Design the sequence.
């Protein structure tokens, strides 16, 4: 029996060592098989580890779990496929997420790992023992304690293993019954007894959702947008304590464009039309959206030209600026709540007015050709002398400038030229919209925004950078309208966003963070329930570095946990209260065992 266990420990060590060596070349994306129904993953603890709430290590970790699906291969015999199909009807499928092992099997794997890392186990004949990363095993909560994680972490002195720290995470609930919650004094007393500590320190953590997710337009998909605050403080007084205003807090912002609640939703739709044109230019296929007005594009353009013709005799710059004010910025219909933030531009030139009319009414490539034909003929015959902004780089702007001197180059309205012409004037107009907002609010300088409005890169990249500007505007507007932020908070936030987007591609799933005083936003959560509330109980410095974690959360704390009632699902509101919250109760404990020189196979528990 001992020989069989030794061989199993050696097999596990060899497997983990292979995964570890592969990880030193780069974290593998796919799990490695250990046995027919078990696989192991190598995870960077610093990159969204599923254990970050319960373990504060910063190294790589192994995660072992059950294989969650059956792969069908060409080599499988018909009978095997039938069996696999039968099993798959009752087993989790490939996309169902990680699958846990039984608690009994998890304990066996932890035992084998401990044996392989014990420096006294020389008869395993490991030629060059390596201190492996910690091992964590997903558990199915089938024991009375409802264990969901078991872990083992080597304790080291230099490169020498001196012991093992064993971790256990259990989870119960969800429940709204507060009598099921432990008292802080009981938790501290149990920690002192378990770890023989005379003095303990406590640290609190609470997370509140300030702006919740909603369904994105035309998709039916739940948005992952939310704004939440993480608060930490020392000296916890009681379970579910509201954080003190002296606590340290970080605002976390993840916003996806397309939320119909957004005050700049109309600007988002304008941007989507710009993206449609860019895609059409790239692929040769343009999916024209439904028109937003009853008149045709040709009718609207002809009206604009007729108006300019009628005013030509009294042409001056101020007249055309007044005309622009009638058209207004096409972000026009922005919510009244942010008019002081996103001022409607009253200086739209002819090309921008043209964009405002055409983007609402164009439904085909032929519309483009006919509209630009009307414009070019009017310019050639000197029927209009439209005003345009200096510095405009679009082809249409160049033609207008040439018309001032009575000499225009011949343009063939064929191929991608009409689409490119409309895309260019849209880019010019939207760049000015965004820049006007950021500079007007004293959140950035023109020089600092130059990267986003540069015309030295190709059109597709210019569109990509406009999308970045829009994402930053969404963040700015949400924090202004929903959280009532002032310049002192908006400025560092926007500087952080600009810096990120100068160095990274568009990523609407990125979480932007802002250190903030709780007093700035506490009115949004002081009467609300925390989504996560946690207390850490630590032995004071100078004693063993051990801790107990007690957490309450409205969502399952682990991916592989199943429940018929995964917590309270709230509607999308700011400061949306619920009468009571259903909480999952999670407890994380650890114990440490040190190498006992007189023993061959065991550690000494202390």
Sequence:
């Amino acid at each position: 029996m001992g020989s069989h266990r030794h061989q199993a420990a050696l097999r596990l060590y060899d497997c983990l060592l292979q995964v570890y060596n592969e990880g030193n070349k780069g974290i593998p994306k796919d799990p490695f098989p250990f046995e027919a129904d078990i696989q192991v993953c190598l995870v960077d603890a610093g990159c969204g580890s599923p254990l970050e709430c319960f373990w504060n290590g910063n190294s790589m970790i192994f995660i072992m779990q059950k294989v969650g699906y059956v792969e069908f291969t060409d080599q499988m015999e018909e009978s095997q496929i039938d069996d696999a199909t039968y099993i798959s009807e009752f087993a989790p499928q490939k996309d169902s997420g990680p699958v846990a092992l039984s608690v009994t099997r998890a304990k066996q794997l932890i035992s084998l790992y401990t044996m392989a890392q014990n420096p006294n186990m020389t008869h395993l004949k490991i030629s060059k023992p390596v201190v492996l990363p910690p091992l964590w095993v997903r558990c199915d909560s089938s024991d009375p304690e409802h264990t969901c994680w078991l872990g083992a972490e080597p304790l080291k002195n230099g490169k020498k293993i001196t012991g093992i720290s064993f971790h256990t995470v259990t989870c119960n609930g969800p429940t709204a019954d507060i009598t099921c919650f432990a008292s802080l004094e009981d938790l501290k007393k149990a920690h002192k007894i378990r770890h023989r500590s005379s003095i303990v320190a406590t640290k609190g953590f609470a997370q509140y959702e300030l702006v919740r997710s909603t369904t994105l337009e035309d998709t039916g998909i739940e948005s992952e947008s939310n704004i939440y605050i993480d608060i930490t403080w020392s000296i916890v007084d009681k379970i579910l304590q509201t954080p003190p205003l002296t606590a340290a807090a970080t605002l976390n912002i993840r916003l996806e464009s397309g939320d119909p609640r957004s005050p700049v939703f109309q600007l988002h739709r304008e941007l989507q039309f710009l993206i449609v044109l860019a895609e059409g230019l790239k692929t040769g296929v343009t999916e024209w959206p439904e028109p937003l007005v009853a008149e045709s594009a040709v009718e609207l353009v002809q009206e604009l030209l007729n108006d300019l013709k009628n005013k030509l005799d009294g042409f001056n710059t101020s007249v055309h600026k007044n005309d622009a004010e009638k058209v207004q910025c096409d972000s026009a219909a922005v919510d009244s709540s942010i008019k002081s933030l996103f001022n409607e531009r009253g200086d739209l030139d002819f090309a921008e007015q043209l964009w405002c009319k055409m983007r609402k009414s164009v439904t085909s490539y032929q519309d483009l050709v006919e509209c630009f034909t009307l414009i070019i003929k009017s310019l050639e015959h000197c029927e209009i002398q439209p005003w345009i902004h200096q510095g405009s780089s679009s082809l249409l702007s160049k033609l207008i400038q040439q018309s001032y001197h009575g000499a225009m180059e011949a343009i063939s309205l064929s191929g991608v030229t009409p689409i490119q012409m409309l895309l260019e004037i849209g880019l010019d107009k939207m760049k000015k919209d965004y820049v006007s907002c950021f500079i007007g609010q004293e959140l950035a300088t023109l020089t600092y925004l130059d990267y986003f409005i540069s015309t030295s890169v190709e059109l597709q990249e210019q569109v990509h950078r406009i999308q970045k500007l829009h994402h930053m505007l969404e963040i700015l507007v949400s924090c202004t309208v929903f959280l009532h932020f002032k310049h002192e908070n908006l400025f560092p936030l926007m500087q952080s966003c600009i810096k990120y987007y100068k160095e990274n591609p568009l990523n609407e799933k990125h979480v932007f963070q802002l250190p903030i005083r709780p007093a700035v936003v506490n009115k949004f959560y002081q009467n609300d329930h925390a989504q996560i509330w946690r207390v850490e109980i630590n032995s004071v410095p100078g004693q063993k570095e051990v801790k107990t974690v007690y957490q309450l959360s409205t969502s399952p704390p682990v991916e592989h946990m199943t429940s018929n009632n995964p917590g309270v699902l709230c509607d999308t509101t700011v400061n949306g209260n619920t009468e009571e919250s259903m909480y999952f109760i999670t407890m994380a404990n650890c114990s440490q065992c040190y190498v006992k020189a007189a023993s061959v196979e065991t550690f000494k528990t202390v």
